[in-house]
């Protein structure tokens, strides 16, 4: 009888300890720690290089654009983020003929990625265009610090934050593609090549596209105000994406999200004018992040000294948090 009582006691203890494990799961990851690795100091350092005269305005097919893709590639190599293409080849080559006479030569998209650890076949694409408009007729270089140097360095910092998380054992459930596209300024050619000709990842398994194009400045409407950002397209294909975006901002960054240009009747038609549109036309939910136009838009005066780096830091952190949520939620977002 004593032996039976002892056995029952042991079984009860084992069951109790097992239950304790179930009711005390591993604490949630502190996502903010990774977001805080995105800093105005690093953004500024990168942008002063990327938007310097050395890159000659990054015109599609020109030598300055070739320097730009090498800069981007070298960053990914340095932080250990690989290419999704064979043999570590980061460049998706686009022939001159694809540009319909608008480029003097062939050009390249730059692709890097972090593989998902649970649902690797599902992909979040974060994009920014790497090109600008080159040199003006009078020899003045259009550095394109805001357009889209700001988006380019933001994307590099987001990738680095995800890589730090992965090294800590907190890699994303879904894969994340960091896509730097060329030829945006001459007609969204780089993103169209990726979606229409050579999608490295299945479009059917592409969950969403977060596109970053000009997020470093303040437009006249918001001068003297708190940090803000225009969001375009977040509710056009998936209300769930819009709700997630709003919730993430409320929890982490508290920006003033301005939907002025999301209006279907917006005369500027910004929804159709950046690289997210080539994903949206394939029924992939998108968000276009944008600070609005300013007096230096497409002028040599769009220089890195005019960027609001504190605003750029917080805006980049918002995009990181949104991508994190999309990459790690249990079910992929619903398409309406």
Automatic annotation (TrEMBL):
Domain of life (superkingdom): Bacteria
Alphabetized Pfam families for the sequence: Peptidase_M28
Gene3D superfamilies linked: Zn peptidases
InterPro entries, sorted: EF_Hand_1_Ca_BS (IPR018247), M28_fam (IPR045175), Peptidase_M28 (IPR007484)
Peptidase M28 domain location: 109-321
Protein name per UniProt: M28 family metallopeptidase
Organism for this UniProt entry: Mariniflexile ostreae
Lineage: Bacteria, Pseudomonadati, Bacteroidota, Flavobacteriia, Flavobacteriales
């Amino acid at each position: 009888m004593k032996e039976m009582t002892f056995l029952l006691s042991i079984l009860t203890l084992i069951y109790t300890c097992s239950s304790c494990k179930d009711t005390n799961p591993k604490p949630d990851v502190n996502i903010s720690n990774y977001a805080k690795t995105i800093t105005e100091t690093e953004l500024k350092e990168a942008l002063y290089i990327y938007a310097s005269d050395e890159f000659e305005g990054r015109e599609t097919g020109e030598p300055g654009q070739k320097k730009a893709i090498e800069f981007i590639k070298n960053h990914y190599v340095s932080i250990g983020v690989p290419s999704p293409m064979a043999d570590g080849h980061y460049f998706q080559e686009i022939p001159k003929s694809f540009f319909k006479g608008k480029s003097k030569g062939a050009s390249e998209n730059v692709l890097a990625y972090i593989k998902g650890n649970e649902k690797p076949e599902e992909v979040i694409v974060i994009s920014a265009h790497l090109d600008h408009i080159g040199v003006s007729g009078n020899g003045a270089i259009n550095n394109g610090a805001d357009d889209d140097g700001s988006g380019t360095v933001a994307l590099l910092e987001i990738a680095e934050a995800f890589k730090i998380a992965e090294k800590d054992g907190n890699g994303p459930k879904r894969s994340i593609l960091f896509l730097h596209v060329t030829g945006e300024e001459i007609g969204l050619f780089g993103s169209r090549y990726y979606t229409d000709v050579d999608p490295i990842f299945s479009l059917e398994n592409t969950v969403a596209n977060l596109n970053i194009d000009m997020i470093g400045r303040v437009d006249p409407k918001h001068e003297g105000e708190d940090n803000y950002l225009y969001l375009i397209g977040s509710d056009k294909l998936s209300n769930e994406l819009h709700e997630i975006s709003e919730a993430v901002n409320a929890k982490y960054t508290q920006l003033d999200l301005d939907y002025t240009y999301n209006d279907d009747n917006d005369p500027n038609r910004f929804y159709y004018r950046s690289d997210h549109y080539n994903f949206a036309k394939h029924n992939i939910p998108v968000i276009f992040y944008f600070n609005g136009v300013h007096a230096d838009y497409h002028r040599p005066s769009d220089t890195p000294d005019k960027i609001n780096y504190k605003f750029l830091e917080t805006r980049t952190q918002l995009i990181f948090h949104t991508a994190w949520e999309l990459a790690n939620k249990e079910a992929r977002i619903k398409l309406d």
